[in-house]
Amino acid sequence: MGGVLFALGLVAVIEGWRLYALRTQMVAGAVVGDDTLPLITGAALIVFGILVAVVAPPPPAKVTLPAGPVRAQMLLAGGLLVAYWLILPYVGYTGSTALISVGLYRAMGNYRWLVAGLLAAVTTALLFLMFRVWLHEPLPTGWLGF
Amino acid sequence: VEVLTQLAGGFAAALSPTNLFMAALGALLGTLVGVLPGLGPTAAIAILFPLTTVLEPVPAIIMLAGIYYGAMYGGSTTAILLNIPGEVASVPTCLDGYPMARQGRGGVALGIAAIGSFFAGTLGVVALTFFAPLLADQALRFGPPEYFGLMVLAFTVVASLSSASLLKGFAMAAVGYLASLTGLGPSTAEPRFTFDWGPLMSGVDLIALVVGLFAISEVFLGLEESRVAIAEKIRNVFPGWADLRAAIPAILRGTGIGFVLGLLPGCAPGVTVFMAYDAERRISRHPERFGKGAIEGVAAPESANNATSSAGFIPLLALGIPGSAPLAVLLGGLMVYGLQPGPLLFQKNPEFVWTIIASFYIGNVILLVLNLPLVGLWARLTRIPYGILGPVILMLSFLGAYSVRNSMFDVGVSLVFGAVGYFLRKYQWPLAPLLLAFILGPLLEKYLIQSLSMSGGSPLIFVQRGLSLALILAAGVLLFTSLVLVRYTSRRVREETAEELAL
User: Fold this and answer.
1) Which of B247, B201, B238, B174 is nearest to B444 (CA)?
2) B225 φ, ψ (degrees, to nearest 5)
3) pLDDT per residue over B350-392, tens digit each?
4) A108 and B386: CB-CB below 8 Å?
5) What are phi and psi of B161, to 5 degrees?
6) For residue B42, what are the CA distances in angstroms to A17, B398, B418?
7) Contact, B125 vs B364, CB < 8 A?
8) Which three-class secondary structure state does DSSP give residue B191?
9) pTM (whole model) above 0.80
10) Which of A15, A32, A41 is the closest to B453 by Cβ?
11) ipTM of this complex
12) Is B190 within 8 Å of A34 when comparing Cβ atoms?
């Protein structure tokens, strides 16, 4: 994590430096600008990164990462969410929500196909009522038009 | 008298059918989501926030406040019936609430929690009514350096939200500031941290970030845990005379501790609940009953939790300083609706403020009226299998993140923050400082730039003006106080749960 903080800090300082150069060209006489907080935050992140990695590492957390079927469930559910994100604009709300819901109920609840299908139909209908009918949200319609 | 006149005006507006309905709907939905296993108030507000965006600011904020109250109460239900604290503030409630439920007295525990929450919440709102305008009266003395001082004061909250490691908390706050800088710079409108990628120009959306960090990550953490509810039917939620006699003094003491400490901007409910629980056990004639189903062990921390949460509205509305993660999301919600909590809010939007304050009174009553008869329903909800809850929460979060700006980019942001949030929580890096810094980042930058422009770049401006200097000194004192309180609370959390939990 110390390395991640250091890297983020470095990115912030480089971006701050770019903005500083831009400010001195664009705004004559300005002593502060859009570069100020990025530079301060970047410097702080670099210091925190060094502290975490080298100087005063926090006590290591006792972490048990998921394994076996639970890990498979989580990976499948995460993959389905990414797939939903990718297909929603093309397949549209109804088709993609029904499809991904079936997958999520199968992956997270181990329901049979029929039960998962029924649950997915109810979920799709309720979410449509909530977002499209109540909130008037223009949900993506995709190639199918719904 | 002026305060009472304005409050009466607020009640007239808050009691309109629309606002009343929104308060009831918010309390109902908040409790509904709050009782879902493992979902704390922050996640509940995050999931439900997009549903309010279709409303006008006043009913939207009233509904959001109802959601907040409801979600806070919902957290008690899962703590008592499932032994699952949605957040650290519910840990002491588990200690005696769950044993009570196992003894078949879950209904009484839920009833006392509701009564204690109502009493403490209402007292907090009374104090908000009279204290907040006094603080806000100082509005004209606030210039950019003073506002910057306020932001520094708000930064002390990071200490109380950092669990055991202050370094982790401050590092997460810096990451939050960095995330808030993405988009167009406020001075020159020059793109920052966009890497020439169009969607990043509009910055990271608050709701996408909150939904990812607190809702999506929560579902994945929930998948790993096996959660079993108490199967017995909830019979009676109305405590008997003996229970009331034992609980009322505990409610009063819990309220006092929670309220007084809750006024400090750096004191989260997670701190005060343990102090109230420990105080109750210390003064009890039978301390051996604690941990085995003592009703005082539910009444005191629940009252302290709600008193602190309600007292937290004073620094939130009058100074713009949120004392806890759910209040930070509420602050973000106010800002989404174009309202800037702080000293000027009472002068610029008095009707709005007094309507909201009046709705807090109403929300507390609605919560009590709704919750006591519906306790059985909430208890049944905790038995919904996670295989159904998980997909529903994920789909709701996904579409919620999309609906705020109709943007698939925001959905992608929430998925990324969902994964990041999962690993940060697994490795015990606190998320609340990140959220707080993300929300306060743009304000901090604005006041920093304005102040330094006024002084020609000299940072001495922050110590040359009396109020600004006082705020910065207060920040130092509060930081020290928070550190002492956090150390005490972290030790207690470790004793009770053998875990490090963010407050």
Assistant:
1) B174
2) -100, 145
3) 888 888 888 888 888 888 887 777 777 777 777 778 888 889 8
4) yes
5) -100, 10
6) 36, 16, 14
7) yes
8) strand
9) no
10) A32
11) 0.90
12) yes
